[in-house]
Design goal:
Elements: H1 35-42, E1 55-56, H2 62-72, E2 76-80, E3 86-91, H3 92-98, E4 116-117, H4 128-138, E5 142-147, E6 150-156, H5 157-169
Parallel strand pairs: 1-2
Antiparallel strand pairs: 2-3, 3-4, 5-6
Length: 171
């Protein structure tokens, strides 16, 4: 990295110029090149206007939970305790990996047996790139948005794609 103060050619990744001791860290920060990148880097979760989550208790029978998913055309349910605190998430992937072909008589079994406990979450103030990073890194299609330990929204991959598509249309 070339130091803007003295012109010294530094090794990439150094934080201080080896010649004049100028701080180089601000120069290493990514810069948005277009409105999509700017939105992902600066906009917070609330910008998506995420949906209110559909929540269920951990003792709900699995057949009933599946019915709720189908009736509401959603791919994940948030499992909460009596106080509304997030315990887990039951997703389509959980049904495919933990139920399909493994349990013949699953209908009456509790959701808690198949949910993903302690899922990754985000806050309303997190940036969209942070959410995308969590989704991509963990392979998640749904991420709960938590406020005070309670789920207030859920973000899906579809929400992110819809937001990015709107930005592309207006470009």
């Amino acid at each position: 990295m070339i130091c803007p103060t003295c012109g010294w050619d530094n090794v990439p990744g150094v934080e201080i110029c080896g010649h004049c001791q100028q701080d180089l860290t601000p120069l290493d920060r990514p810069c948005a090149g277009n409105r999509i990148e700017r939105s992902l880097m600066e906009d917070q979760v609330l910008q998506l206007r995420p949906k209110k989550p559909t929540t269920i208790p951990p003792d709900m029978p699995l057949a009933e939970a599946i019915h709720v998913m189908l009736e509401n055309n959603i791919g994940a349910l948030l499992v909460v305790d009596d106080a509304g605190q997030l315990l887990g998430i039951l997703s389509e992937r959980d049904l495919l990996k933990k139920v399909a072909g493994l349990h013949d008589d699953y209908a009456a079994l509790p959701v808690a047996q198949f949910m993903t406990a302690k899922p990754e979450t985000v806050a309303l103030t997190d940036t969209l790139n942070f959410v995308l990073h969590k989704m991509d890194g963990g392979g998640y299609r749904h991420v709960p948005v938590i406020e005070g330990g309670k789920p207030v929204h859920v973000i899906s991959v579809r929400d992110m794609l819809r937001h990015i598509t709107k930005l592309c249309d207006g470009a």
